Amino acid sequence: MADPGETAIGIDLGTSYSCVSIIENAKPVVIPNEWGERTHASVVSFLEDGTVLVGNSAKRNIITNADNTVYSAKRLIGRFYFSDEVKKAQAVMPYKIIEGENNSVRIQIRENVFSLPEISALVLKEMKAIVENYLGHEIKKAVVTVPAYFNDNQRQATKDAGRIAGLDVLRILNEPTAAALAYGFGKDITQKIAVYDLGGGTFDISILEIGKDVFEVLSTAGDTYLGGDDFDDRIMTWLAENFLKVHGIDLRLNKYCLQMLKEASERAKIDVGRDGVAKIGVEGICQDPTGKVMDLTAQLSEAEFNKMVMDLVQRTFKVCDEALQGAKMTAQDLDAIILVGGPTRLPIIRTSVKHYFQKDPMAGIDPDEVVAMGAAIQASSLLDSKSDHYLLDVTPLTLRVGTVGGYTDKIIDKNTPIPIEKSKSYTTNRDGQDKVKIRVYQGESNKAGECELLGEFEFSGFRIGYRGEVRIEVTFEIDTNGIVNVTASDVETGQKTSCTIRLSSGLTEDMIKQAQEKNARTTLARGEAAA
Amino acid sequence: MTDEAFEIEAQALAQILDELDYFQILKVGQAASPTEIKAAYYRESRAYHPDRFSTLPASGLKDNIGRIYKRINEAYVCLREDSKRIKYLADILGGERQKKLRFVEASEQELKKEKEQEVGATPQGRKFFMAGLADMAAQRFAAAERNFKMALTYEPNNPNFKAKRDEAGKLVKTDMSVR
Description:
The complex is a heterodimer. By secondary structure, chain A is an alpha+beta fold. In chain A, about 30% of the residues lie in helices and about 30% in strands. Chain A has 3 domains: about 5-185 and about 365-390 and about 515-520, Nucleotidyltransferase, domain 5 (2-Layer Sandwich); about 230-305, ATPase, substrate binding domain, subdomain 4 (Actin, Chain A, domain 4), CATH 3.90.640.10; about 400-505, Substrate Binding Domain Of DNAk, Chain A, domain 1. In chain A, a hairpin with a 3-residue loop joins strand 1 and strand 2. In chain A, helix 6 (about 175-185) packs across helix 11 (about 370-380) and helix 7 runs antiparallel to helix 9. Chain A starts with 7 loop residues before the first strand and ends in a 10-residue tail after the last helix. In chain A, about 50% of the residues are buried. Chain B has 2 domains: about 5-100, Helix Hairpins; about 110-180, no CATH class. Chain B contains 9 helices and no strands. In chain B, about 25% of the residues are buried. The interface of A and B includes residues 211 and 418 of A.
């Protein structure tokens, strides 16, 4: 047993909710907060007096303290300011999303500006505090999970968030892999399984082969623009359109009405999934032009709801097709299906999954907690040199370099086991050239515009010679976190060249250091009283 | 295995890594079945997966393990897929084995270049090369050699042209000696 100071925690940092777990008596357990809550809204609310609220109490502030309450930060983390997701968020989020240096995204709260990793770091700080309060000693190490389909920028930003929160991030772990680990851990089984993970903002499917001590990911596929939030949006549109038809007022034009509408939609989704029908009632959602306060009332049946979201459900199965193809399998080859994420509680998802895989999903797995539990298992195993299971994970996206004319060349295929490296050599194409610029992308298209740009690396410090004379070998490495490292060396002299990243939404070491100090100074107003 | 013995083994393996082919990396025979390859991959992962050494401070041993394990993954990616494995085996059994120990998938550009080199990248080069091939088929080796030499004046660096010229040249000689 590792000494108590060496406890490492597993954190599921979700789009909507987060959860934290540790190993106790050789079993993963979810740690509730002081008020018995086992999952915590990934919401950060900045109060007037400088204190900060995180979790379910912060979520209650989305309407009353809308401008200063940040939610769904995970949808924005690791994105460039010019991306569609950011534009979409700006239209619906009540908090202020602004542009930072190098095309990065920042959140402005009153006169303070935060990077996305800083916001997520506050959620992580709360998770850390929950365990510290429970155990009575400080926690320094953690495994943090991310959607399997997250790209390098998103993984790097999540790792930065952990560091800012004062955590040594032992591993960035893929959520479906974590779920598979929690499912298979300690069971002596040999199975091929699929993990269907529909979260608040992202969808992942991973196909794994698990044995007594080995968890091998055969393939993974996903959609980082598809989650439970999109189901809420469908209900929201339906409610707003009906209200507009009856009263001539578009509730979506006012950000406060929009928040109330959003909250009602989320509740309706949960109710309709549980009870087969949802009664929606929001008192005082807006005022008509004469100043009369108006209420929103509606009833949503399961059949109507299913019709609204059918295309979203179908989209997940297109992704499942892709994953099965990547694993060279058909649905019949699978022994078990594991459902992860709150939205998988919906009957429409369960019946559709059963229909697609021709198999009942596994019962007895909590879709909200299983990822954190898997993260705790991995965290504890990384601290224990005698641990006897091992994870063989893959990179979800093809790594590419930019070539001439807006095209890209493949470097490392998707679904390649990690860690892995590949080298490519370049020659100078001008006399006296002293720099080589390489743009690195992730994605499945040979057109640069259809891939995600990771960054532009500029190598310098190699010998200067005539054109074609100097050869530079560039090595692309994907580490066990799924994070990409690029280095270059002069082939002839073996001299390593220096590298500057010119285009990147990431934080510099200095920025992380400052953010760490700011995070440490921030007081979390913990507790029900604070809300 | 003791820690010390393992450390020595890892260091020895890291040193000769660039001289080993993928079958040697996974410690399987060249005729190994897919099941054997997977079992070997699991066995080597059990020994060298970096997670097993995560508690070690940064050291030469850790670097060696990192290098070895990346190569194990590289070997597995190639050998688990029939099409890649067949090409790889042909590569390492052919000439220049040392240069072909690490599998390289031909990029689209390279494939195009290869095709051009096979039949020639210039219209004149192609014309003489095709004529040479016809001469070879009709066993007119001296004429074939002349045509390949002509083709080479248009594309002096085409390896395929050179190979055919040499082949024809050799046949001319044996032809003469038989007579």
